[in-house]
From TrEMBL:
Protein name (database record): DUF3433 domain protein
InterPro entries: DUF3433 (IPR021840)
Stretches that traverse the bilayer: 163-182, 202-222, 273-301, 321-344, 431-451, 463-482, 581-604
Pfam family, one: DUF3433
Keyword annotations: Membrane, Transmembrane, Transmembrane helix
Start-end of Polar residues biased regions: 132-141
Residues covered by region (Disordered): 32-51, 115-141
UniProt organism field: Coniella lustricola
Amino acid sequence: DARVKKWQQQEQAGVLTGGLGAGFEAPRIQIRETDLESPSSPFAQRAPSRGFSFARRKLSVNRSATRRALAQSEANRSGQAVQIIVEEADVTLASTTKPPASLAHRGSHIDLSFVAGDSMPRTPGDPKEPSRGTTTASNHSAQRVETFYPVPNWKPFSMRWPYLLHLIVLSFALAGSVEAAYQRSNRHGSLVRFVTPHEIAALDYFSIKYLPTLVAVIYGVLWQSSEFEVKRLEAYHQLSKEDGARAAETLAVDYTTSFSLWHPYYAMRRRHYAVCVVSVATMLAVSAVPTLISFSIMLSPDRATREADPMAVKCIFMHGSWARLTEAVLIVIALLGCALFYLLETRRSGLLADVKGIAGLAAMANVSHILMDFKATDVATHDDIHARIKNHRYILRNSALAPMDDTRRSVSAAAGDKKKYQSTRSNPLPLMFRPLGFVPYITGVGLFTIFFPVCELTSWIEIFPGVLTALAVCIKLGWGALDTTTRLMEPFFILYNRHAPPKTLTLDYTALPFGWAAGQALVDGHWLVAAVGLGTVMTELLTVQVSSLATVEGRAFILAATSRNTEQDGIDAGEETEHTYWLSLVSALCILVYLCVVAVLVYAKRARIPFVPRQPNTIASVLAFIHQSKMLYDFVGTEKYSNAAMLQHLTDINREYGLGWFEGRDGRIHCGVDQEELSATYRHGVDFARSNKPWQESFEEWL
């Protein structure tokens, strides 16, 4: 009808419709500067928050700085935008009237009027008309208004001070435990002495054989939980800063599927110090600590001596050099934990609630005109999108994303905005879903499945006993990458299959902690994600099993099994008994076989055909998927919803969703995520827009 055509014309002209881009609501709290700074004012005497934080308001004799600090504190306390009426004496109208299109924000000179969408038609008294930074003159004074938006501080539990303090204390406690074990070993000459493993008490056997590696593995998992949350939410903290942040440092950053070894370097370059600190600490906790502990616990005498005298006294002891190196690494991790504690407790996250799935970003992007920055990027690659927006600044205010630089662009940027990106035939899937990443990994796991029992049943185990543990850690890290990729891509694979339920838009397995994702996926009926999540748990057990067998040679048990002599006292395979040895070996091999089978299933079910035009691993990539979706009309006014409230909202609307080609709000064909019915299912390398209704595009766009 006429209204739809009018909206389509507005969308084609770069103006959002249907309540999208309506801007921030006018602040309901107005305070005069004199009331704000008065010693008797409740704003100046506000009781401190009960939250534990090192954040301090910097004292300053500067009037403007004091006003900003008090106003921002009141906005944070009330959770609402606050307008401060500033009176300036002896100012004439000609010298104080500010341009009507500017909005003073926190006393800065940044123009935020674009957040309200100036090009949208408005009527007088519109409740969403933003307050302008205006100045009215009188004979002796003038007034201007400054608006302060709350900066919320929601954080997941693994980023809060109790959890971080627990990691710090645990790191120092583990270092002390290693030192205590070394001192005992050095004082008594060993941790335990025995002739045959049957002489070792069950508790002592478990404490020496399994407990150290098990504790090290759990310790690494605890650090991984914090690492993932810090990386996932770092962009939102950067965007919540007073001056916002560049897209190259936030919207276009991928800390999910990129190679984690380079994360500290790139994080330091972007000044993401929390990411840098937690990445280094986690790499040491996950990789170095289990391996060093495996090297620290040794068996004496050597194999040749034990073969010459099977009934000789044997001892398990702590190697001094390896033990001290383990302690040093744990202390370094503890100090990094202290640095992380300080960084996270002296800043606000900028989030009111967790941002989960496509729905979380859709809710944050509907207030401003940020979606227009992604025009014509339906099938654009990451490099194309990054080149286009990398120098644009964006800000997170009142739970909404907005551009800082309005519609004013440089000549080169304006030319780039008109570019029509074409579908590429290169594989857009993450590395672990491509042959380049999958084939080397599955080959490595297969070779280790062969190499491990060969080492156990030959004398090779004596050469490098700690190498097997290091290889098991490498398998764990590789599987972690596969697990992250599978969890990231699952909602988009469901959408690719069309007619997905509303829950798919709020589905985000990457936000779930270790182990929980597998159980949740099983409840949701996503068996492949559950199988991969179970594999992640098994890789932790694999590290423990391999470490327990790293100093054991199984030839003695093979000979005993094939010999008629059933007397086991002469069996010499280190500190393992026959039953524990075969249980550990068989369980480790079963885990390796399980990993191989599940990895092949993942590749067969998810990686054979690319089902997305690009990886949804950045905020910018997801926004490009939805920038012209009609479903965004359902997200107007939902920017402050929690994940549960959002799910209930979408369930009440009761629509189905899909990933493919659809007619957007501008009346043209687009590729992305939208409500059903779509025009066509996505097929990689096929540009449905160029083969259907080509007359809708200009001649330049067609070329």
